[in-house]
Amino acid sequence: MSGRLPVKKTYKLYIGGAFPRSESGRTYEAQDQNVARASRKDVRDAVQAARGAQPKWAAATAYNRGQVLYRIAEMMEARVPEFAELCSGKDEVHRAIDRWVWYAGFADKLSQVLGGTNPVAGPYFNFTIPEPTGVVATIAPDEPPLLGLVSRIAPVLTGGNAVVALASETQPLAAIELAEAIATSDVPGGVVNLLTGHRAELAPWLASHMDVNAIDVTGADGLRAELETAAAENVKRVVSGKPDSQSLYEISAFLELKTVWHPIGV
Amino acid sequence: MMAQAPVLPRGFELPLKQRLPRIGSIDQVAVEQRAAELAKRSIKKDAKVWALELALRCCDLTTLEGQDTPGKVAALCSKAIRPDPSDPNVPSVAAVCVYPNLITPAKERLAGSGVKVASVATYFPSGQAPLDVKLRDVEDAVAMGADEIDMVIDRGAFLSGRYAKVFDEIVKVKEACGAAHLKVILEVAELGTYDNVRRASLLAMAAGGDFIKTSTGKLPGAATLPVQLVMLEAIRDVHAETGRKVGMKPAGGIRTSKNAIQYLVQVHETLGPDWLTPDLYRIGASSLVNDILMQLRKEKTGAYQSKDYFTND
Amino acid sequence: MTELDKRQDRSPVPQGWTYAPAPESTDVVRLQDRYGLYIGGEWLAAKEHFTTISPRDEAPLAEVAQASEADVHKAVAVARDAFQSWSKLPGSERAKYMFRIARILAERSREFAVLESLNGGKPIKESRDVDLPLAAAHFFYYAGWADKLEYAFPNRTPKALGVAGQIIPWNFPLLMLSWKIAPALAAGNTVVLKPAETTPLTALLFCDVLRQAELPPGVVNIVTGDGSTGAALVDADVDKIAFTGSTEVGKAIQRRLAGTGKKLTLELGGKAANIVFDDCAIDQAVEGIVNGIYFNQGHVCCAGSRLLVQESIYEPVVEKLKQRMATLRVGDPLDKNTDVGAINSREQLERIEELVAAGKEEGAEIYQPPCKLPEKGYWFAPTVFTNVAQSYRIAQEEIFGPVLSVLTFRTPDEAVEKANNTPYGLSAGVWTEKGSRILWMAQHLRAGVVWANTFNRFDPTSPFGGYKESGFGREGGLHGMEPYLDFE
Predict the structure, then answer these.
(1) Under an 8 A CB cutoff, do A235 and C247 touch?
(2) Number of domains composing chain B
(3) What is the ipTM score, two decimals?
(4) What architecture is domain A27-263?
(5) pLDDT computed for residue A1 by the predictor
(6) Mean pLDDT across the stretch C470-480?
(7) CA gyration radius for chain B?
(8) What's the whole-number mean pLDDT along residues B118-135?
(9) In the annotation, is B249 catalytic?
């Protein structure tokens, strides 16, 4: 016996800015840890938290959203070794951090690139602006466990959406570490909600949830047809992206376009 | 009457509740679109003949020139009584509209015909003279026998926000008119916005004008369809609120039958059939009459007409 | 004064002005007795046909093909073939075909407008002044994009998708055709389009425009039929489905395409709030309300079917609205003075009647101006319901007819809350003279199109499409190109 016995972490869910256990009291073992196994009721709570937090997040200035997202990168940078142990290593962590920085810088440029004025044939001022679609459910890919999750949720948040994400089922620990980084950054509670558990059990509840506006099925191999069918019930936007990409168009996939007309007269 | 609360800042009136007729505002694009839509009505056959005859009955046949003489006015009066000498069924116009100096010859010529004499007054067309001069102008015209007075508002006062001055002048002119009908010319081309046209319309009606009239005819950009629409809507609001029927007179720029029918359609669909009478609707025009005559004869004969067959009085 | 003059004393003014009928001549339209399917630039005979009628008098107009599943598959295969060469054509050449189409549509606009009104029931003044000019403008606008795609999507390499299956509704038949076909062709796709069952004729006449434009065979194929034809198209070997129609059918299509990887855009229903504040330009607002709900008999997905009036201006707005409704001229769609035409089909008429009955049943107060409706054909008088509660069916469901529900609000917050309290999110209207309030409202309304101090305006450069259950994807503008491109 040498030194002290380390205090082990309990890996919990991240809902509404808090870290609850699954309401079901269930866990499953992954990466040699007991991890919370979320239930459909946890899905429900997470969506509710996301819906509550979304308007304020969307109403924040784009500059402010960029700052908050950048702050996540700062928080992660301070925990590189911890993250590295929970995913494929330092390189993945660095890339995930840089991904936040890249998206953070896009928050206040979106409207300029994606929106604009439309030269309609008449005495009207007409402009189109991108707006968040609302609450987005993200089925994160199993691999890479950290970069895959960050690559999928960063563009969603950049656009002003709130997210409920299902973490990698096989390697969920990086996601929980990320939740802790997010909790210590300035992201308002409820804007990001992270669930761990069995994808096949939880994803259908997200897909059929009537208060979810879009679903990202990137990590939903084998479940896609089922999820897309359920998603039709409230005409969800279904997005299928890449586990590791960085693009303006990953942001725009979760945006609506609003066009406003006003007459020009005296 | 509601008491004026002493605590209210100047310019506020009770009740504060937004009720009609309030001043309100006009959206330029929308009002022009509505006017353009109404202008597309297709008026054919009997409906067209009906409208053309009505337009004729509503005409204020006008000459307002420095070079006007009793001879010129006499010719105009003959035309007014009997626009188409070859067709006794063609009705007379409503009135001739002249300068005060020409009232007497016009009166003589029109005696017994039912065609009225209208005179411009109040230092027409600018209105830029002291009030007593304007009132004297009106009194003289009435004394000479004018049945109707076409006054101009003080646009300088209006545009500088001295609405009370504009209002008071109209009230005094109305008093000076006695039994003569008062048409209040807003000179819309100088008002700059439809909001102002509406405001001036309400002011003129509140002050007692029997008609509101678009223009002196001395400026480009006189009557237009959207301007008339704005004024008709103001008339409609006053009627809805008070039951009082104020007349409308577009003047200047209406030269074709087609255009005249567009004006009538607007009246018909905004104020309704009650206003389709010379008692409540006039068109200030000169060259319009011959175009109507040509159109009427075309409807009758089926052949397109030549100006050579219609007198240029 | 002469004796002659004296006889000219003013006679009394005759009363009443009734506009004489001003019918647009139907001579410009020459219909075939029977139409086949337009596949590969040729007319192919179909096994079955159905009769398409005019809703103004239920008179049969022509026999139209009922495309079978095999017909649809054939059309898709032909489009797939044509894609090989069409997609390789330089954008500048594709553009020139499209410019030709735009020009020919403009040249033949009278013919198309008359046919549109005849087959669909909309007033000729609308098909003449709205549908046709906009349809031609769409082709003209998207033609210009065909060789400029690299400017539209920075940092991406746009590529055509392949074959686009397109299913369009009956409310703006030719205009919806142009909204669908123009961006698809500009992007380099080929098309199989199914017109609505009740309004196939302008799409069939459009095939003659394609002939005149010498568009290569197979680039555009038109298959007529009922819902089963549409379903066959959804299931066929297409790369994309673009659908405009009801939310119910849209959901069914989304389900059907689940897991197939086919691209999808949906432009579905709406229940737009038209919000009137007490500081609005009231007469123009009333005009906007009328245009918002009675334009095209209310057969408009973005119609302003829920009027939200601030309580402090409720009486004058409703009074003026009723007065204005009384001047609407309901009748023969082909009369140039008609403001409100025929209801598109018996089925739609029954749906309107059912919902209006429900509105009465639920306790709303109905007003319809006195108007004589023709005996034959499908007609419904312009209708407004007052005393409507949010929970009434007429305030919730899309009626798709000339029926307006009036609700009230007190504050901007309440207006937004009520406006957004619907699964739909296609459009909204705001009437106020206060600039900052317009921008605040525009920001808070969850709708793809916000008309401030105007309503029901459309333009090829202006993206159109919904939030929530009103669908996804945009049509119009640069954004309207995206659904027809791949960016791998």
Answers:
(1) yes
(2) 1
(3) 0.96
(4) 3-Layer(aba) Sandwich (3.40)
(5) 57
(6) 97
(7) 20
(8) 96
(9) yes
